[in-house]
Queue: 3 jobs
Job 1
Amino acid sequence: MFTPKRAIFTASMLLAITASGSFAETPNLGKPIDEAAIANWDISILPDGTGLPKGSGTPAKGAVIYAEKCSGCHGDNGKGGPAAALVSDKKIEGISAAQKTIKNFIGDTTTIFDFIRRAMPFQAPRSLSDDEVYALTAYILAENKLIGPSDEMNAQTLPKVKMPNHDNFIIRFPDRI
Amino acid sequence: MARSGDRDGRGQTLDAAAGNGLIDRRALLGRGVVIAGAMGAGIGPSAAAGAEPLTDGPWSLEIGDPTPLYQVPSKFEAKVVRTLSNPNHEPRNSHSRTPHHFLEGTTTPNGLHFTINHGGIPTIDPDKHRLVIHGLVKQPLEFTLETLSRYPMTSRVSFVECGGNSAPMFAPEPMQETVQALHGLASCAEWTGVKLSTLLEETGVDPRAKWVIAEGADSPHLSRSVPMKKALDDAMVALYQNGERIMPGNGYPMRLLLPGYEGNMNVKFLRRLKLVEQPGMSYYEARTYSPILPSGKAYRFYFLQEVKSFITSPSFGATLKGPGLYEISGIAYSGTGRIEKVMVSADGGKSWAQAALQEPVLSKAFTRFRMPWRWDGGPATLQSRAWDEAGNVQPTRAEFVAARGQLDKPAPVLAFPNQHYNSITSWGVASSGEVKHVYA
């Protein structure tokens, strides 16, 4: 029931909240949560390597995983199948997006790791271990001759691999960033 | 400006507004009866003499159907559906396109809103769904649908358009496809939810935060980077679509709404927002929505869906049934604000007349334009061109191709050979009344 006493209490609460500043008029129903509890969901990786997990993998290990879990859609040795080719020396001529490949277009190696980890395999996303994701990323980079055939990829080495198309982008609306 | 000389039956003249039969738009406003008179000119008592006597249909002579809990359109409207890119649910993405040529007004019915999903449509239990905001904040917070539903709500009408909408227009020859196939990856709805700035006020924002990485709870965990500028401007965590909970294909139980920005950035099934210093360069921003330019370079962070319009009636696939008065009608919208004006041409751009804009004209929303036209039965090329309040003008196809290029040969109509196409669409009307897609 709405009583005069409650009205006074409510009014004093409003004053107190308003006086406290920035949290003045929002319900504050969000439940505090710490980063440890978010860790299983926090798969964000930045191009400088921030967020890359522990673990490592080599092209040789990646080749085995690729043959088992990826080649059904992306073809033997990444040459393409029902899904896009992952290994290609094709150059971009004209404006068709169909020509985009990892080697001729993707600007950052972290994008490859990130997409495999969050979305692949198509039917079983998030089923690969971080070591497997590093190994698959290493395999794709090595097949594209962007790293050596025995180079290990980990949180330190992966962001240092320079992609050929890295500096070929124009920011369309810089004033909106 | 030529006078058409049309008489409306009361001795008034319908003013010609531009070549090939366009009539002043003011003829539409408060002069509907007059136009009806003009259309009826020549039909007198002698024509009515042979008219069929009216009879009752069976539906007027028996009790109708029971009332359903949730009503759906008449069975006679079965053709008014979306078209599907992946009807057999193969392991790849799936698009559905809005049938603009069967719709009127500016609101896309929820069942006909376009969708693109990259790993099927997740079946999300709303009681178990969580939205987490973390990263460069003072206090990471977790929200449920129930708690968000207790926040102050805001509603706004906003279009959402895929960055790849209209991609068939990059073909060097006009593809003979409906407005649904060409432009069906854009829709408009009233979205209701909680402003993102309200939630960020509660988490607090570290001044180093320049981007928000948004992530969905779908199987690809679709992720896009959004500038903090947009997050603190008009971004919304949307919970409702045209008054009811968001459709599963549109992001149930909650999605990010970024009015005027590329559809893919409006992350559906929203479960996580991480404030960071640099963009994440996710697959979709690093690859898919970075269009290749004729120079060989590519645009990155296109964000905006720029000013665009297209005529929905008449459009490809229609056949005009004889000379006479028609209404040219279509949709205009811009990611940078309200539509200022729409010009229409019936002679392939040689002359233009200003169309009537249906109120309300809302920022970053579909605006319906209308233009009366008397078709004389000869060839005509219908075009529309929109201006927005920020002064942006929809480019002609020649201007667009000069800047952005075109394909060497057409791609499959469901493919996305490039992105962010917004130039003029032209419909060619033949003497037979048949409407084709043309470049003019």
Job 2
Amino acid sequence: MTTDEAGAVVAAGVKAVDWGWRHASRKDFALRHVDFEIRPGERVLLLGASGAGKSTLMAGLAGVLGGDDEGEQEGSLRIDGIDSRAARGRSGLVMQDPDAQTILERAGDDTAFGCENLGLGRDVIWKRVRESLDVVGLGYMRTDHSTRRLSGGQRQRLALAGVLAMHPGLLLLDEPTANLDPEGVQEVHDAVRQVLEQGHETLVVVEHHIDVWLDLVDRVIVLGRPNDDSYEGGVIADGTPEEVFSVMGDVLAEGGAWVPGREIASHAPTRSGHGRDVVLYADDLSFGRSFPLGEHINVRFHAGEVAALTGRNGVGKSTLALTLAGLLKPIAGHVRVADSMMPARRENDPFTWKSRDLLGRIGMVFQEPEHQFVASNVRDEVAIGPKSMGKSDEETYAIADGMLERMNLKRFAPANPFTLSGGEKRRLSVASMLAAAPKVIIMDEPTFGQDFTTWTEMVELIASARDAGSAVIMVTHDETLIKTLDARRIVVSEEE
Amino acid sequence: MTETIGVVPHKERHDEPRATSPSWFIAKLNPVSRFIGAMLLCVPMFLSLDVVSASTALLIDFALLWIGGVNPLMVLRRTWMVWIAAVGSFVSVTLYGTASGAILFRFGLMAVSEGSLYAGAATFLRVAAIAVPGVIFALGLDPTDLADGLVQILHLPSKFVYGGLAGMRMVTLLQDDWRALGLSRRSRGLGDGSAIRRVFMQAFSLLVVSIRRGTKLATAMEARGFGGDAPRSQARTSRLHGVDWLFYLICMAIPAVALLLAYRTGYWHWSFRN
């Protein structure tokens, strides 16, 4: 079983022999001919470009890939000699999206959920719940604490606690910190370290930001395409971090990993933003949804300048961004634009404008790209802006195709936006906003959960929009992004 | 020097346990009992259509709820929707019900007679008597506790119940999604024009987003061993106590007294006969 006589968790071993998986709707195997062995207690960082099959392998290890109707399996994937699909409870998976992993209303019940599914006795369950909450640093929380108002970091730690309470010998973390602010990343990292110090579980973690986990892992496995002429993924490197990074550094960086110690090219503006025209400004603005989050705010944004709104989670940065974008009504005061940007016969208050007036003036990229998609294919998605601005079909599609080319999305033109990968969706959401050529570009966390490749593309896009004379306002926690663009930093913080 | 934008400090977020009912008595009950009680209370009331039984039941309801910690004013405030429905049925029965007795008022198809006025009043009281206690019972009901009761007491399949429970949690997320979808459409120049068409398109997007959310949630649940063939245990106990049985007795007594009174006073009128 999962615990020895003293009650400690026994680490699990993993063995993949010629393992492969093909999703029922795909022609090619996502992964094929995968061979590796992970000894009990090893801590593995799993790397690979987006689409290399990392999440497929994690789902396979967690036994949630599904049955024969969902895909075809080859070879074997065993945990302690048991087929992973039958080894329920032997592995515990924490995934990327903090919202998707809270199952029940009260923290204690949520933690107990997995134990109930394993059919454990009541006393054992509550003992484990308390131990697990303790180890992830949520021991201070009452077990009836509501899960509604948790931060992302707390949510991910709660998910970790729920998994730990099942006493899995194998801990699977699939980009658990990708959607978190730096504070949340640290919380989750520390919780996992605490877990490993106490339980010595086997660990497999997927993460683009290698340095987050580097101090906890002793082995790196890289997935990729062993043959250039085939789309099938497999293991392309396996060894200690030093070995793998010295040999594979370039390949990994190209595949999107943040390889430690790499230089990032600067995209600082060539001349300073001083003396440039003000295009958008807040005039004694109070913003908020039902009650004011911030009051009497005066701030100016200039053409050709990138301004970064930073600050702790939950202080209202996104709400401020939506207000500046003319999407939320100011509680008091005004958001105003330069006279040259004013639509005809409108007041200088973007919130009162028609939706169409915003096109070409103020564009907003939302945190969740999926909230933005409206068309059934990528090309039409990008065409919506120019079309609504009254351009001819010919002109519209010329703009759309040019934008797709620039964003490296051309081959997806006929695809449905929802079928794209995370990074591609992000690029598409930016492309469709830029197609309307707004003078003010507002972005909410443009680099959340991005791998290095998409991140670099995003930086280049922002820099080129800036150099073309747009004002860029971005809400971000990403210090590297701010430094690389040498952005003007505006800290949103609580008043004393 | 870094620029700052000052925001109002977070108020200390007090996360006090929510009261599961405005009534101290109902709060003690198993959530399942609230349903059973409501059924016991309202089903017999369908038997007779008269003013006496309904008004008696309603009076007893109000009195007992007051003893139970919910004063009449609060009952009225929390059940305003019921009263609107009751007035609606009063108006339609009065105007369009079968005429009998002296005609008091006539306008086209509408005829207000003594009989239809009486039937309207009886219907008004009955709708209130049936729905008011049910609404008050349901206030503050904790979904998790209800799910536990459904599985452990009524023996409904746990996969079904807990799957539904987890799905309900998504409703809050979908409300946020709906708002974001609307804002993003405005930002993309699609916010003008026919509101009906816009809502329809946006609802379709919400459907897509909700399916994706549901899939993720299902995977998270499966990863924690949900949906397996092994028997599931229960971290929480859901049991019926003496107070639940007392509650059932009260819920049976109210319609019994009310209907008996109607019968004895001669007001009894079979609902399912003209």
Job 3
Amino acid sequence: MSVSTSSEIATRAATSPFEFKSAANLLRIEREQSRTLGELLRDLHTCPDSSIFQHTFRTLQEHHFIKEGFSNDFAHWAYTEIGAVGLGERLISLDVREFTNIADLRARLEGIVSDFLAQNPRARDQEAVSPFYFCSADTVVVPTEIKAHNIQEFIEGLRAVSVHSIHYHFIEARLRRELETNDFSIWLKRDLGLPGVAARLNQIDIYTSTAEGVRRQILRTLEGPLN
Amino acid sequence: MEEPRSAVQSQKEGEGQRAESSTVANAVTDTTARPRERRAPRISDTPPPPAPPPLLQDYAPIIGKSQLDELYFLATAVRGKNVKMVNSTAVGGGVAEMLNRLVPLLDELEVHTRWEVITGGNDFFEVTKSFHNALHGAEYTLTQAAKDVFLQHNELNRQRMSFDEDVIVIHDPQPAGLIASKKDHAARWVWRCHIDLSNPNPDVWSFLKPFVEQYDATIFSSPSFARRLPVPQYLFYPCIDPLSEKNKELEQAYIQGVCDNFGIDCSRPVVTQISRFDRLKDPLGVVQAYKMAKRYVDFQLVLAGGGAADDPEGNAVLQEVNDVVGDDPDVIILNLPPWSALEINAIQRASTLVVQKSLREGFGLTVTEALWKGKPTIASAVGGIPTQIIDRLTGVLVHSVEGCAYQIRYLLTHPEFAQQLGRNGREHVKENFLMTTNVRRWLLLFRILLGAN
């Protein structure tokens, strides 16, 4: 079995280049408004897929600078507007990376709220301080001029792109590809022959770090084999 | 037939008006120079000439090249398209301030944008001011005469104006009736509502709603400000311009100079509220909170704003605040003229904490300004403030005088936590509430409306 040296990895040419992209989103206000947990459960069932996406995946991008205590809009609302700490705790622990499609994510959200209401039936009609307003986003994929043909260029590209690009490739990719991985790991494994690095990238915790922190962790993981 | 006024023309007229009123504002400033041992602050009695609008490239150091490139890419699909923005005033107020910056930036991206201001007599603007207040929930009896005035002036403007652009954007209710021209033109029509419609006077809303329902899209500043409508509703948060006089970076020497001028001791903590002397901003509540917190921590309170010069109600509130404060040398009350953006910027930057203890609020752009400057901010959970302040993550939300006092004590004695709030707050603004983010939203909307996605 041959062992790759750092210089060999640094100069290894990818079978196809990695093209960095990003996404720009325009928020739409949807019709659903939940004033109670009972209404939230109803609206979780009927709202468009794009709303589930907005309040879980997309909100992470909007709040990418927070590393403590922000997971998704449903959890935040349960804590601050309903005061349902037990529910908030369960919702906050939801990790979007476990999901490769919106239907499963929606079912998990409904399940958490439904279980909570079964255990706390009086909470169903408790009025929130302010309603949960469902939104969704129209998205435009934005190409960048940055392409990587090897790991060195990939590292340089990662340093240059916006955090929106990191979010697009590293977090949203799961839904696009319907795989429990991300664009970076797929390219590193498939086009650069670095399955170990690809796997380590996929283990980075996006909930305990800011997006810039995630960028730094990705860079550290990539620079490891080069040193 | 009279031509519609261009925004620039109206601005010049407005500047003249502001200059005329400067002596009044200055006189008020002199009367509020306190405490007694503090010398009267020097404030210019005329507005400075307007600064040239920044270029897109000027924003690169703030948002980064990658995000600037995104704007250029988004513009490619709508390059060469023509847009008209219509509102009711070229000077004063947040809408004109925002359009002053937005229009040149869209133009620079080759989305040709023309800004026109509707005309109307006193009767029209009295009616639309009443409508504005009524849409915010004030009591109002809608008469047929008021409806007629609204319709007549909208019709006069409609006949004067052309609507040959690709997109027509109507700001706020005053020109909403221009939609009657939609049937004669191919343009896509957008109604940008800057006011809170969560609790409108039902009669006024019933009168305006049929106009609004004819638009191709509507835009609101917060989901809670919107109404249920049969047309798409988009969310555009209000924004600040990081390069404006109110928000641009300042030299430390300038900040120090402003503080020296106003008698603010920068070697001790400073807690500031910037707002008009208006009961809804609760300046008396802020003074109460100051007195409660002051028993435990040493700091100065700065209440800075305007609005008392030409507003009897504002003058009364200012007098009440002065009475409550008495001769406390650590409370600095500044009634500033409207052209004090640089001074306000400096005071915000010199502050240890910023407070916005409003009882009611629109979006609360003074909060946005404070967050942008990285200031730990304590604010009431009203209006659009909770959108900006995620409690204990980007600032602190309060619901009472006591809560405000406690949080002042807490943040002044926990500077590391306070600084973390400030850092998060600034990032929140950078991501969501800057002019460049707003440009991106407009480009995305134009792409959607024109089928260019």
